Amino acid sequence: MIDFRIDPEAQARLAEAAEIGLKELRPAGLEADKNMAPIPVGDPFFDRCLERGEGGTSWTGLDGKRARSPRRSVVERLLLSEEQAYWDRGVIIALPGPGLPENNVISMGTDEQKERYLGPFLEPDRPRWACFGMTEPGAGSDAAAIRTTARKDGDGWILNGAKCFIGSASRSDWILVQATLDPTKGRGAQRAFFVEKGTPGLGSFKIEKKMGLKAYESTSFSLDDVRVPAANLLGGEARYESSAGFKTAMRTFNAGRPQIAANAVGMARSALDESIRFAREHDLLGRDRVRDRIEAISRKVRKARLVGLKAGWLADEERPNIIEASMSKALAAQMAQEATTLGLELVGIVGARGDHLIEKLYRDVKAMDIVEGTGQVQRMIVARTLVGLPR
Q1: Superfamily of domain 1-74+90-242
Q2: Structure pTM?
Q3: Which CATH number fits domain 245-386: 3.10.120.10, 3.40.720.10, 3.40.50.300, 1.20.140.10?
């Protein structure tokens, strides 16, 4: 039986997330949007995050007792992600912490790597970040097409290539860089390497300008003869079998796609609530077309939430969820764009001023169809899985 219930402690955390969202996340997001720049590293907002216990790792330490951020069920994480994105999705991506590569380090890293790279996040002395370097100018949704190379050199590795649209890269203590031993050998040649901040050859950081989600940085950077020791290969060479490096990266995205779907649901809820508020204030709810559109969006929001939660429930049950994960992202991203479009149509010329929440959501939500695999790619994955073709 599918069960999405969460315990009272998790319900309390959801209520706390809503309070923090109202008081902290939305104001920070609106300010970043007005400034057209990411929240600066030294902003007191990040210090308050640490004071609340955020910005840590769910890794428990080698003694198994020191997790700052206790591990939660996937269903709870999805509900939290939805609630936070309701207030501002860009801000939650800007939050300090080990970020996207954390689960891969926990599942595949050596004890030494966990202690070195996740240890500082157990009791962070300052806001810290880490990130996952996968996307390249010529490799976005097709992660198998990366061209950043890794060449064995004595007791280390030499990395060369370029990455783009990597969240928080310039402020990260380390980047888990996905590279290939040979671009002609496909997925089986991929490996992941820890590259620490300040490593010679790691540079040319450029924060990209985006139409939305301005609170966090999307960064491009280059790797020019970056030398890392053998110990920086995630899991060590002995851990890699055919396609293991690629599969490790894909686990990150398969786990992240329902979370992107939850983000999109939260943003759609926000747009829907704001649309209803505006329609009520301007006496528009008496119009059949307005009510019909609101009903349709409400129905689609609930449908998208249920598909995403099922993907999360399957993950908690350790059952395959590739179809549900990809379906949830494709469905929720498209639905969220419809919700913000409805809102923009309702507010009309007010939205053209550039200072209305719905106008901001309209710009923010487009990324939900792009990040971690476009909607087209998700539909392709689902279709190939359903008919038994390789993904």
Answers
A1: Butyryl-CoA Dehydrogenase, subunit A, domain 2 (2.40.110.10)
A2: 0.90
A3: 1.20.140.10
**Catalytic residue numbers, as ranges:** 372
For residue 343, give both structure tokens.
């809102």
Give the pLDDT mean for 22-45.
Answer: 97
| Three-class SS state of 87 | helix
Contact 214, 36 (CB under 8 A): yes
- The C-alpha atoms of residue 366 and residue 280 are separated, in whole angstroms, by 26
Question: Please, are residues 239 and 181 in contact by the beta-carbon 8 Å criterion?
Answer: no
CB atoms within 10 A of CB 119: 16
Residues paired with residue 175 on neighbouring β-strands, in sequence order: 131, 195
Distance separating alpha carbons of residues 280 and 282, to the nearest angstrom: 5
Confidence category of residue 140, pLDDT binned at 50, 70, 90? low
Q: Please, what is the end-to-end C-alpha distance for the chain in angstroms? A: 28
**Local confidence band at 292 (pLDDT 50, 70, 90 cut-offs):** very high
Q: Where are the alpha helices (DSSP H) in the chain?
A: 8-20, 26-35, 44-51, 74-94, 102-108, 111-113, 244-281, 288-316, 322-347, 357-365, 375-386
Instruction: Reduce the DSSP state of residue 225 to 3 states and report it.
Output: strand
Which range of 197-206, 353-362, 371-380 scores highest in mean pLDDT? It is 197-206
For residue 132, give both structure tokens.
């996952």
CB 187 within 8 A of CB 216: no
Please spell the DSSP secondary structure of 127-163, one letter per residue: --BEEEE--BTTBSS-GGG---EEEEETTEEEEEEEE
* Structure tokens, 260: 């992107």
